[in-house]
Amino acid sequence: MWNTISTYGAGMAAKATDKYAGYMAKDDLEKALVEATANENWNVSNTLLLQVSDATYQMHNIDRISAFFMLKLNSKAAEWRRILKTLNAIDFLLKNGSPAMLNRLQ
Hints:
This protein has about 110 residues and is mainly alpha-helical. About 75% of the residues lie in helices and about 0% in strands. It has helices spanning about 1-25, 30-35, 45-55, 60-75, 80-95, 100-105.
């Protein structure tokens, strides 16, 4: 029973953190990154991923995006959806992002 309560509490904490991060995002890119790597049960829309990949054509966004993805890849194993969504976003950026982003992610 304790494991069930603990798992439920951890899930609620992750949802609260995602909502807080979404509200406190500085700009549209950061909001898109938070939504693209959320620990939710559904996939990310291609429109949102395309918005992030378009942002990679501006050089000042490349470091922000790669640092954000590295932060999300270092999440706990219990947040496996976040890690999987981050890997899917990286895959999308490798195919559709700028060549400079491709060099940065290697």
